[in-house]
């Protein structure tokens, strides 16, 4: 029996008999507002796993190093064992969300350059926004690691923007996470899905992401199915 190592809001991580690998299991839970809003949607885990695997495959093919080894089944993937940096790495291409709430910026402004943000992944403090100096002072990552994370994230942004544009979706913003293998390799980890990206239809600006749940403006499963359908029909 695989041993449960960690249980997050939407996923579980299991140890395997191979000391260099983990298995990640996608659950059907959705949370928002640091867990304040919580619900379950049958099939969400399957959809996110499917969507995330297609995106990770695309990124790997484009030369981004990721934790992905293989998809085992609808809900489980085999990944390289990494220690996750306690950082939420966020890119914004269009203003919305916490950026507008915090800074009073207008919604929906297309930014001339992507904004790169780091948050300290820590529920007790509400995942506060930090800069490189904070991350280094707290021992979350080194300068060199942060440089690699920033450069890789900007590359990922370009690849994802082009990928979603082909599906007639604008990549508004997204959050990714990185981890480090025992031998010091930094890999893209966690997931990329409508839970962690904001996606707006190019023509109508209709939302195709977790904002439909956060804001109660649509059916989460139907929305995620529509994203997958665009990916499969491209
Ligand atoms: O809420 P905020 O505007 O900061 O979110 C920016 C992006 O990061 C959004 O795409 C959101 O889905 C993602 N995010 C996430 N997990 C968090 C916080 C934000 O996936 N804990």
Q: Please, could you describe this protein's structure?
A:
The chain is an alpha+beta fold. The chain has 2 domains: 3-80, Phosphorylase Kinase, domain 1 (2-Layer Sandwich); 83-219, ATP-grasp fold, B domain (D-amino Acid Aminotransferase, Chain A, domain 1, 2-Layer Sandwich), CATH 3.30.470. It is 30% helix and 33% strand. It has helices spanning 44-61, 97-103, 132-137, 143-165, 211-214, 220-232, and strands at 3-7, 11-15, 21-26, 29-32, 37-40, 68-71, 76-80, 83-84, 87-94, 110-120, 129-130, 169-180, 186-189, 197-201. The termini are far apart. It holds the Pfam family SAICAR_synt. Pathway: Purine metabolism; IMP biosynthesis via de novo pathway; 5-amino-1-(5-phospho-D-ribosyl)imidazole-4-carboxamide from 5-amino-1-(5-phospho-D-ribosyl)imidazole-4-carboxylate: step 1/2. Keywords: ATP-binding, Ligase, Nucleotide-binding, Purine biosynthesis. Its EC number is 6.3.2.6.
């Amino acid at each position: 029996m695989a041993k449960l190592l960690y249980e997050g809001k939407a996923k579980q991580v299991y140890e395997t008999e191979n000391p260099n690998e983990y298995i990640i299991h996608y659950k059907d839970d959705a949370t928002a507002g640091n867990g304040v809003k919580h619900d379950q949607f049958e099939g969400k885990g399957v959809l996110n796993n499917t969507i995330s695997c297609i995106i990770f495959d695309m990124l790997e093919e484009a030369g981004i190093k990721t934790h992905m080894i293989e998809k085992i089944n609808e809900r489980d993937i085999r990944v390289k064992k990494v220690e996750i940096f306690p950082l939420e790495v966020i890119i914004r291409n269009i203003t919305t969300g916490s950026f507008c709430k915090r800074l009073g910026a207008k919604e929906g402004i297309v930014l001339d350059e992507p904004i790169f943000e780091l948050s300290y992944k820590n529920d007790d403090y509400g995942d506060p926004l930090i800069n490189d100096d904070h991350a280094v002072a707290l021992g979350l990552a080194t300068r060199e690691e942060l440089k690699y994370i920033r450069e890789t994230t900007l590359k990922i942004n370009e690849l994802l923007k082009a990928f979603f544009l082909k599906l007639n979706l604008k990549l508004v913003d997204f959050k990714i996470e990185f981890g480090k293998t025992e031998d010091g390799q930094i890999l893209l980890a966690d997931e990329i899905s409508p839970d962690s990206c904001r996606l707006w239809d190019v023509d109508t600006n209709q939302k195709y992401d977790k904002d439909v749940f956060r804001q109660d403006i649509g059916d989460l499963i139907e929305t995620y199915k529509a994203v997958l359908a665009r990916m499969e029909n491209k």
